[in-house]
Design brief:
about 325 residues; alpha/beta; Translation Initiation Factor IF3; 4 domains; 8 helices; about 35% helix
Length: about 325
């Protein structure tokens, strides 16, 4: 049994999710202690529990400690089974984090899998549906992981109620990733998605982008989907030849529309100034497919503590080691 300290590094839920994925892919029995010890409310929250249950379902794992608030979980995986699965968080917790937990494991299975999800789709502190569909999945396809996604209904905090589906085909192998340069900028879009809030909020957010970044009307998009509750998110999208970088800012009560937009703008400007191919959050997510595939290299911003912790957890399961090398200020090369 591999013992994993859930309090290491940034001490959050990523340790749990990465450990579950790697356990399924390597057939390793694990025990995770001190789960989410770095958070105000330690232990399993509803969305983390759903990750554990989803992983258990797809590989008939033997599990203990699978309950809300638990700070210790043991997980003994068996063979991953392709099939049709339905995962519901039961709250507005992120469904995309559940998807990431099972995605690569199901891609390694013999047969196609069809998944449906219910819960949050556009959450703070988690990648949105758009981020995964437009930034992450296209790179996976280039590495040989075949995934298609379809959004039926948005789900914002605190109401949730989002619905979407994914189709995963088996991958014979995962090829190396080469992303030293993003290539030419082909298109840019500022997309504000709002539901159940005054129209002037989206208008002010887009106006802030236009004035601060000098973007034209054709690059500004307001979407108003139907969903069960209310919510707002600013998504700045830079479509390059090799990669799509997306930076997002979720609206919150008490935070002005201008501030929400400026948060996204600041992150985008940092990415552009560094001249790297991969943004901070996408970089974190590329480690797993590289680790179980044929490695590769990419250039990104200075690695966050979250990314360093993800690297360290992956190292517990494999003798392969990532190299983090600083090229210049806020420009790093990540290689395996």
């Amino acid at each position: 049994m591999l013992i994993i300290d859930g309090s290491q590094g940034e001490g959050g839920g990523q340790i749990l999710r990465t450990s579950l994925t790697m356990a399924m892919l390597t057939g390793t029995t694990i025990r995770i202690d001190n789960i989410r010890a770095g958070r105000k409310k330690p232990g399993l929250m509803r969305q983390h529990l759903t990750c554990v249950k989803a992983a258990k379902t797809i590989c008939d794992a033997e599990v203990s400690g699978a309950e809300v608030g638990s700070q210790v979980v043991t997980f003994k995986p068996h063979a991953v089974k392709a099939g049709e699965y339905h995962f519901s968080v039961g709250t507005a917790g992120s469904t995309l984090l559940i998807f990431q937990t099972v995605l690569l494991a199901l891609a390694s299975a013999k047969g196609e899998s069809r998944l449906t999800f219910e819960g949050g789709t556009h959450n703070i502190f988690a990648p949105s549906y758009d981020f995964i569909a437009l930034a992450y999945v296209p790179l996976l396809r280039g590495m040989g992981v075949h995934v298609d996604m379809a959004l039926k209904r948005h789900g914002f905090y605190p109401q949730g109620g989002g619905q979407w589906s994914a189709h995963i085909k088996p991958s014979a192998s995962i090829t190396s990733l080469e992303l030293r340069d993003s290539g030419q900028l082909l298109e840019r879009r500022a997309v504000v998605t709002s539901a159940g809030i005054p129209a002037h909020v989206a208008e002010r957010e887009l106006a802030t982008v236009a004035q601060t970044c000098d973007w034209i009307d054709d690059e500004l998009v307001s979407e108003k989907p139907r969903c069960l509750g209310s919510g707002n998110i600013v998504s700045l999208r830079l479509y390059h030849e090799a990669v799509c970088e997306i930076v997002e800012s979720v609206g919150k009560v008490g935070v002005t529309a201008e501030k929400v937009a400026q948060n996204a703008i600041k992150a985008m400007q940092r990415y552009q100034a560094a001249g790297v191919a991969v943004g901070e959050y996408l970089a974190d997510q590329l480690l797993l497919p590289m680790a179980i595939g044929q490695g590769g290299v990419f250039h990104t911003l200075k690695p966050s503590l979250h990314m360093q912790t993800n690297r360290d957890v992956i190292h517990l399961f494999t003798q392969r080691r990532f190299t983090f090398r600083e090229i210049e200020v806020d420009c790093w090369e990540i290689s395996l």
